TrEMBL record:
It is an enzyme of class 2 (transferase). This is histidine kinase. Keywords: Aminopeptidase, ATP-binding, Cell membrane, Coiled coil, Hydrolase, Kinase, Membrane, Nucleotide-binding, Phosphoprotein, Protease, Transferase, Transmembrane, Transmembrane helix, Two-component regulatory system. It is found in: Cell membrane. Pfam families: HATPase_c, HisKA.
Amino acid sequence: MSELASDKKDRRRSGPLSWRVRAALILLLVLAVSTVWITNVLLTDRSTASTRNRAELRLALYSGNILSELRRNAIVPQLLARDPALIGALNSGDFSQSTQRLISYVDEIGAASLMLLDRDGRTVAATDRNRLGSNHRSEAYYVDALRANTTVFTVQEREAGGYAFTYSRRMESQNSAIGVIMVEVDLAKFERAWAGITDAVAVLDSEGRIILATEPRWRGLTMDEALAKQPAENAIERAIKATADWTALPADAYLRGEAVMRIDGRIPFRGWTMATFTTYASVREKVNAVLALEIMAFALLAASAFYALSRKTALRMALFQRESVELRALNARLQREIAEREKVQKDLASAEQTLEQSSKLAALGEMSAAVSHELNQPLAAMKTYLAGARLLLKRNRPEEAMTAFSRIDDLIERMGAITRQLKSYARKGQANFVPVDMAEALASSLSMMEPQLKARRVRISKILPDQPVMVMGDRMRIEQVLVNLLRNAIDATKSVANPEIEILLASGETATLSVRDNGHGIEDLDALFEPFYTTKQPGDGTGLGLAISSGIVSDLGGRLTARNGTEGGAVFDMQLPILNQSPAAAE
C-alpha cells in the first residue's frame, strides 16, 4: 500500500513537471525561430545594400571606360583625314606604303582596325590585309561620311555576330572628296574583361537594343526579350532553389536560373545605357554563415535540455517496470474474457445459420404469395373478357368477340411476363432498360383495369402534359406498378358513393406520376410498404403489392411514396429519373 501511494505521488509530481518542460521547449523553439528570422532580415538587408553599392561603383567604372575609349578614338579620323601621305596616295593612286602606315598608327592609337577607302568605296589600305580590295560603297559608314563634314559614328551588326563600332570621316583634296578614312573602335575587349568579374553586363543604345553583352545571345534584343530568353529547365531550377533557400530575396531578374540584382546606369554618349546583373551569392554566404552559428548554438542548448530530461526518464523506467507487472496480470484476464467471447460468437454463428434457413423458407413463401397476387388481376380481366366474348358470340357478333379474344391473348402474354419479372424480387439487376413513355404505360395499365373500373363505375380524371414524358426503365415492370396503384385505389373507394380516381403526370427534374383517390385515406403510413401488411379483408389481398411496387421503383432508380390528401383519400407518388433527349442535356 505504501508503494502504491508513493507511485501516485511520483505521478502527481511528474505531471506538472512535464507541462513545464513542454512549455520550456516550446519557448526555446519560438526564441530560436524568432532570433534566426530577425537575424536573417537584418543581415540580408545590410549585405544587400553593401552588394548594391559595390555594383553601382563597378557600373560607374565600366561606363567611364567605354566613354574614354569612344572619346579617344573619336579624334583619330580627324587627324588621319589631314595626313599628307594618305591624301597623296589617294590622289596618285599609289598605295604601296599606305597599309604599312596605317599599321604603324593602329598600335599607337589602340583601335581595332583602320581602313582607307577611295572615292569608289574600295579598300585601298587596311591594317587587316584580308580586307584589301573589298568594296564598301553601300555601307552606312561610307555613305554617311561622304555626306557629312564631320566625323560620323556608326554601329553596324556583323555577319559573324556582334556589332562593329566605327568612326569615319571624309578625306578632301582641293575641296573635293577623294576617299574615306575609317577607324573601328575595339569595345569587344570590355566584354571579355567583364565576363571574368561579374555575372552579366549589357550596353544598350538609344533604341533600347543591346549592342554589348557578356551573354552573346542577348545581342540585338531588348532587355525584356533577353531576360525572358530562359530555357525551361532553368525555370524549374529557379522554382526549386527559391523553395529550398528560405533566405532568398525577391529577385530583380533571373539569369541562367539564378536570382540576380539589376543595376541600371546611363552612359553620356548618344543616349546609351548600361545594366549590370549581380548574383546574391555573396549575400547568402554571409547571412547563412551567421545563421548556421545561431542554429548550432540553439541546437547545443536543446541537446543539453534533452540530456537533463533523459536523466529523469531513467528514474521513471523503474516505475514503468512495476506497472508492466500489473499490465501482464490484466492481459491474462483479458485473454480469459476473449476466450469466453469466442465461445459466445460460435454459438451466435450457429444461431445465425438456423435463422438463415428460416429466412430462406420465408422467402419461398413470400415468392409464392407474390405470384398469386400478381396473377389475380390478369385472371380477373380474362374472366370478364371471356364472359363478354360468349355474349357476343350468342348475338352473332364474331368480330367484336375476336377483339375480346385478342385482349385475352395479350393478358396471357402479360401473365408470362409477370412470372418472369417476379424473379427480380429475389434476384435484382437482370433487366435491360429502354426508353419508356409514361403516358403509353399509363394507357396500357388503364386498358388492363378497364373491366374493374367499369364494374365499379369509377370515374377516372387524367392530367397529362402535351409533350411525352420519357424515362429509362422496363415498361412491363412500370405497368405492373401502375396496375397495383390503380387496384389499391379501386379497393380504397369501395365504400364511397361516387368513387373517383385522379391521375396526374408531370415532368421536371424527375417524372412524377400521382394516383389520388377519394377514399378514407391511410391509417399507418410507416408500415404501408412492409411485406404482408394489408388493410383489406382476408382473401382480398396478400399485402405484397405495395412492397413489390416499391422494390421495382427502387430498382429503376426512383422512389415510391404515399401520403394522405388534404381533402381526404390517399395519394401515391411514383418518381422516376427523367430521360432528357435534347443535345444540350446529352452534352
